[in-house]
Write a structure and sequence with these properties.
Number of strands of chain B: 13
Number of domains of chain A: 3
Helix content of chain B: 40-55%
Number of domains of chain B: 2
Distance between the termini of chain B: 51 Å
Strand order of the largest sheet of chain A: 1-3-2
Order of helices and strands of chain B: EHEHHHEHHEHEHEEEHHEHEHEHHEEHHH
Helix content of chain A: over 70%
CATH class of the largest domain in chain B: Alpha Beta
Low-confidence stretches of chain B: none
Oligomer: heterodimer
Structural class of chain A: mainly alpha
CATH superfamily of the largest domain in chain B: Tubulin/FtsZ, GTPase domain
Low-confidence stretches of chain A: none
Mean pLDDT of chain B: 86
Structural class of chain B: alpha/beta
Radius of gyration of chain B: 21 Å
Chain lengths: ~450, ~425
Amino acid sequence: MRLTREQVLAAGATAGVLLLTLGMVLFFGVSAAAYVAVASILVALVGSVAYTWWEGRSDTSVQGMKLGLLERVKERIQKLEAELKLAEELVKTQHLQEEVKEVRARLIKDGLFTVVFDVNDRQVGRMTLTAIELSVRRAEQKLRSTEAVALAEHAEAVEPRGRRMLENGERLRDAGFRVGAELEELERVLGITPHSLAESLGRWERLKDTYMRLMEVCVEELEYLIEAAAAGGRKVEPLMERLQVLRRHLRTPEAVDELIALRAEVGGMLARPFTKLREQLLGHLTRVKELVRGDASRVRELEERAKELREPSMLGELSSLREECITATVELIEGLADEVERMHRELESFGIRRRWRKPQVPESARTFAEFSRRALRAMERLAEEYDACYTELKVMSSYPAVERIIERKLKEKGEVAAEELGVRYAEEFLQRYASMNKDVKLVRKQGRLKVRRG
Amino acid sequence: MSTRWGIVASGQGANRVGFLYYAKYRNPAIDDRVLLLNTTPADVKPEKPLEKLFEADPELREVYESIRKRRVCIFGRTPSGAGNNWTVGEREAMDDFHTIRRYIASLNLRPQDVLLGIATLGGGTGNGSLPYIIHRMRTDPGVGMEKMNNFLALGILPYDFEAPQRHFNAVCGMSRLLRYAGRQNAALLILVDNSQVERVLGLGGREDRYMRINSEIIRCIHMLIAPSIYTSSATIDIADYYQLPSSLGITHFTPCMSWGNDPEVMGIEAMLESASANPLVPLDRGKATMAYVILAVPESAVLEGTLTQEMLEEEVRSWAERHLAGGGGGLVRYASLVAVPEKRDVDVLILLGGFSLRKLMEKLGDKYHKFRECLTPKDGAIEQGKVEEIERELRRYIAETERRIEALEEGTAELERWGFGDV
């Protein structure tokens, strides 16, 4: 028979006291032994109380552990039951739910839970921790295997659906919708491997949300395009009605086809105004580039941006670019006019006055074509005047040096041809010399200056 | 840069040029190596020659004060100074040469460096001292500069309207700068005539003409140095300037300049024509035998390839065939295209050399003789013997120059030279 801890403690304490008393009697006499006996009784009493208290505490911890185990397994059962319910959207989980019910029943039968699946405190208190642990472990094993099956089936069900969402997204992107970000997100989520039923359910929810977002982006884009077509004077009511219907049925398999079809129709409406405006802009910018005197980087930048806008759906951006183009053109015209005026002032310092009138800067026009016509006319006049002033200034600045060359050559040979001067604007130099010296004449046909005879 | 330049400006007129260079037109090749030489009366107020400059620009006075101690050399023992008598100026330099040498040594020039002496040839101090100074430095081992060969001189000729003694001084000074004690003196003598500069610049009667003329002279010096400072495909080293002319015994040159040419308008040919129309001494066209051509152009034009060394050489060859004696392009010819960062126009310097001195002697000769004839034997201040020697040397030099020109103009048949008889 195995002795309990208490029995052992009692036996040991008794033997100890007896030995101590014997020792006291032998060494210190009976009176000393009497003190030992009284002290022993007191110690035994205090010791018992302390032991009893300590023993009570231990009992409480063990109970707490038992209850903790049972609460945990209860949570797991409830969680799995909820997840299996959610998974029913894609897979049959009835048999799996039955398995979970069996686990419940077994636990109730073991006395660990009541029929309403509350923890059976009193029964649990009577059971050992080990027994409870065994029961819980068995239940958890069963739950794990049930969840594994559910995960495998659910993940398998998500895969083709996710792929289809991705394919739809790609079709919409290829049709011209700007859904690149949403597509990337779909791809990323589809690439995740779930390791629990909860993860698989979460993945499926994210796929659905992202897909719906993608579809809504397409709807918004269509709204914008239809409005742009309406602004261009097209009849768009039927399209708008179809779009509103579609908005309510985005989850249907036909939604994607309808989105694509609507886009094609509205794109067709926008194609002509888009192409026309793009051609006008590019033509205008090409001509402006030719007429600009100085830095043409702004014009080149606008031209590049216009070239990159190729889709009729980009009509909105093209319209914004048109406004920028108008502003830039007006600025260029004003800059060129200022420069021409500056050159006139510089020519006046040489005693040359040019007659000209500053062209009007077209600030408003009914259409871009009209604006372009007026602006280019103004720029052509300004560029022509600029070139004329530029040449005159170049001639005037270098005239003193060239004049001496002309004089020398006239002295040597009595005549000088334009090509003999070795300068640019040679004819202009000869003309100026002739205008200032009456003793020479300019033979224009030959491009030659000759000293007058006589 | 490998070659550094120092300037010694002797006499009042040269002091003005030298000081302007220091104060307003600093060149990295010259830096602060500018020495102003003058004789004793100037000791009382050495800045006197520069008063007019200070009036025009008061800040220059501060600059002068900063260099006074180390860059202003007062030499000579006579209290009255040169008195427009070049022989006195020369003697003052002889008597007090160690002072001058000390100041020149403080310029810290190395054997490969250049010393450019500037003097107005109409005066007494600069005109008298500079030829002697150059001669001593070149020939006297005791001076310690005999390893240095690069002694150039810039001689400024008097205005047409100046008095005969100044023309007399000028002829004597020019001769002595060319040849001294029977041998070649300055490695290169650049001649500039004040009246000619005035004519070329169209300055007649202007208040600021002296300043403008001095500025023009300074620009010439800048251009001379430009190939060694900036990037050039064909640099003209200092030795290139004088070695060949020295070996020919012809070392006089004059600048012909054209500034601010618009490269968009003027071709190289026109720029050269423009420059050669403006020599800074009177001379006969087509009577020069040597030319150094320097074009300072925008760096961007060189990088873009719109102006190249090859283009320049071709145009210079063509120009030289038309403008140098003999129609064969002259005896010595260099061309250098210098690319200057941030420059927008083109400056041209043609250093025309070995030209006939006929027109120059026409300008100087009459007044020279007027004064010469007034000299008496007992006029100890200017020795007759010395004057005769000067005239002799000058005549010899002129004869040699004319001979070179004639030789080019006549042009012996090439094969005859090699002894192939009549061809």
